[in-house]
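Table S5 (text form). Sequence records supplied for joint modeling of the two-component complex.
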Amino acid sequence: MECVVQGIIETQHVEALEILLQGLCGVQRERLRVHELTLKSVPNLGVVSSEVRLLCDLDQQPEPTWTVKHVGGAMRGAGADQISVMVRTMIESKVSKNALRMFYSLGYKLDHELLKVGFAFHFQRAAQISVSVSSVNKMPKIHAIDEAVPVTPGMQIVVVTAPATPENYGEVAAAVSSFCEFLAPLVHLSKPFISTGVVPTAAAAAASLMSDGGGTTL
Amino acid sequence: MPVKWVLYWQPNQGSTVSTQILNEAAQCAESISGVKEGRWKATLNYYKPLLRDQSSTHHPDSLPRDFLGISLPDHPAKYYFIIRSQRIVVEADASIQIIMEKLQSYKSKVSLHFDGFQYHLGDFRLRVGRVVPVHSESIRGIVMEVEYLPISSMEKARKVMEEFVEIWHEALSKRSLSGKFVNVELNFGEFGLADNYTPQHTGVQYAIVMAHMIATVQPAVRG
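The corresponding structure-token record, covering 441 residues in total, follows.
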């Protein structure tokens, strides 16, 4: 399980967001360059049609590493409505580099692929929180990551996630929510698929952060 | 990691496999100065595709009829998939099993346990175990792992492995058993594996050994 919120930010304010995050997290940012392939089952395979993601972390040394990720449905009901983050099932498994070939053999086809480029912070703040800020790129030709172009030029996506369990998701959700409040001047974070647009005050907040290097508490 | 060979018991024509063979093999290991180190266990699953419309003409012939998943005692956090028809072996975290369940596209139809004792003989580790379906006691076969601890190159270890197996056959022949342990010659290169031994080599060996065992070994009515 994981708690997740996301939002969008104009690329021109990303540097300010990075300064703010650096101050809040107290850890070094990590580069993010992930090739994400979404696969879907062929028509007659499976009780229901299914989808699985393969993530290739291109920056890992000595060679890129692969992860299979399955994202399940979001928690529903009155309890879920009361919290401001999405709680959903999510399972990951590191795999050897021939996992794509395996899924092709098992009857999965490439649905779409993206290249996410940006940075991420991983830190402990009442929960194990990860924040990623990235531009989402699409490929003009299959697997042509060197020719990737932004899906939404001038706009980047911010995703905050934290692993949770059925026992502790309430506390984790609260930790994620309270962390998101610190970012509110620059980016508005909400449950995925509920777009809230960019923050109108972002330009002013960014200008303030850039001028004093993030030293002032907002 | 050390080179390992996986052998299986092939009974003579007309005879069956039983726990008696396992006991004899255990005694044989001790007779050649094997020191018992305790039990070992591995689990293997056969996954088969779940098709929405069984009668549909859209049966994807390109799908494998089944593939194997195996967890190995030396690498409990990992899981190995082998698609024999496609010559694919994949290493994954153990959590991949939950992902497969969630996808509902393939289902584990048959699960088998391998369990038995392991022995230490100088630079060798020997494991002998029975093959039994989960939730059953009826023995389906016997496997033996021979591991040569100092060497991780398949090619460099070949001679010493062959010699060990020869000594083993000789020791076992004194017990007049109706059958023998068989080593299956394998081309690991077909699976994209190099000479340096990895757990994926073990996964492939189990997949091939099981195919041979199913094709040649008649289970006893009662194990």
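Note: The radius of gyration of chain B is 18 Å.
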